[in-house]
Amino acid sequence: MTALGIGAFFILLLVGTPIWAAMLISGAIVLVLDIGMPAQAVTSQLFISIDSWLLLAVPFFLFAGNLMTEMGLAGRLFRFIENLIGHTRGGLPATGVVTCAIFGALSGSSTATVVAVGSMLVPHMLRAGYDRHDALGVIAVSGTLGQMIPPSIYMILFAAIAQMDVSKLFLAGILPGLVITVLLVATAVILSWYGDRKLRERAGSKAVMKSFVDALPALAMPVIVLGGIYGGLFTPTEAAAVAVAYVLAMSAIFERGNFTFRTFFRCAESAVVTTTIIFIILGGATVFANAMTFAGIPQTVTEFMTSLPVGDHGTMAIVLLLFIALGTVLDPVPILYITLPIVFPIVQAIGYSPTHFAVLTIACMMIAQVTPPVGMSLFALSGFFKVPIGTVIRGAMPYFAALLLSLLVLWWVPWLATVAE
């Protein structure tokens, strides 16, 4: 029955069944027919999987990111960074990278980031002589920075699965996020030397200062959210709610023209839809993961992996390669929920730091978001700008290589993730 359930999972994927349904059906086959669990218990697992105070942070952070985009605060942030570095060689794509990094720290949503920053940056890069694929590629990859730089939705999911302190993971993601940002900026600067690109006129000091003052409401948000968490004022979930209240207050004061009920409800609807997608995948993945656990698969895999004569680094290399391979066919959320119950005990058995492993896992999920043919960021930009997916993939490849290099750096320099422990 276990073999039948696993076989059903792959067959359902091949015939185009939604990933959540494939995991739910195959998991139910194992739990009901093999383990003997009542069908009602399988249904209850769908609700238990999302009955978490920590997961409540997901819709709030998504909502805050949507509000930042639609009500204008994100535009203020972009204009400040553009005035600051947009005139330099590679300044426009670097502006996109830095804006994505900061915006990711505001919303935690890669989809919201690529759409928000892409809609502002791409027209500027096209006017400066950049090819469309160059403009879309840098945004597609840079938009994933929000999954490493806190508050990260994937870190919230990792903490929920591994039963870890999410505030500790948030702190661990700061330095790795900065390292990846620097490598992406360096890639943008190197690429800018090829081709005839116009340099925009340098903004005057008054313009830079004015745009900085205008951007202060947006720049202050991560300080308030993360400062409140580490200062003990509120939990990560409460911080997500504070983020929504803060964006609404700042938008009401500084962006009155965009502060409308129509915009508010449009942002809320988008957050609800995205949260529903995440949670329904989470429910199916939980049923599937529990089925594999009851069948003893994680224990068997752990014994096998720890007995391999490849050493600790060899075992970790296999795990990371598994993540990257799965990223070619699955979205990051099901990857996390399917694999972590199996590989996390392996990582603990070989003595790896759970915090370091969390950072490496999130770096792999960033890669999965831009790995053809199912990368979410690739499809988000392709759909928003109505261009072939191949155009986005072509422009993303140099930055994709930078992400792979970042993963190697974070793997071989573990203190970047564990310095805050």
UniProtKB/TrEMBL annotation:
InterPro entries: DctM, TRAP_DctM. Its main location: membrane. It holds the Pfam family DctM. GO terms for cellular component: plasma membrane. GO terms for molecular function: transmembrane transporter activity. Keywords: Cell inner membrane, Cell membrane, Membrane, Transmembrane, Transmembrane helix, Transport. It comes from the Bacteria. The chain crosses the membrane at residues 6-33, 53-74, 94-123, 135-163, 169-194, 215-233, 239-259, 271-293, 313-330, 358-385, 397-417. The keyword Transmembrane applies. It is found in: Cell inner membrane. The complex comprises the extracytoplasmic solute receptor protein and the two transmembrane proteins. NCBIfam families: dctM. Belongs to the TRAP transporter large permease family. Part of the tripartite ATP-independent periplasmic (TRAP) transport system. This is TRAP transporter large permease protein. It comes from Acuticoccus sediminis.
